[in-house]
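Question (not urgent): is this output format expected?
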Amino acid sequence: MILRATHLGPPQGARRHRMTVRGGHARAYQDPRQAAEEMDLAARLRAELPEGWSTDGGYVVHVVAWFGRPARLKRTKDRGTGELRHLGKPDADNIAKLVLDAATRAGVWRDDALVHTLLVQRMYLALGEEGLEVGLPRIEVMIEGG
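Got this back:
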């Protein structure tokens, strides 16, 4: 079985937990922006979960994070008009962490330790695609298993 979901918006990665001290006690909490992104992606995954999906098998996860092109890459004629690899922040492992945590929250699997293959690609949108619905910055997730 294959599960596909798309999270619209600029791709973000998982952030470190934050700490605060109140009344002499330290408390860790999750960044509110990350929590909102994780909840949105979890809701999208839950909505697309096929009937009969098993939470016990091994899983293959493919994530493609699409970024809008910066102005410097829109002007450069020798870069071409096709898709380019994104080689900056957020790191691929942080994007994967956000997706895996969202899938765990959505009930796609019992634990992300059941993922045996993980591929994360970070790409810039092709020139001329920006602004179209398909050309919006986004994270596309495909999970095979279940």
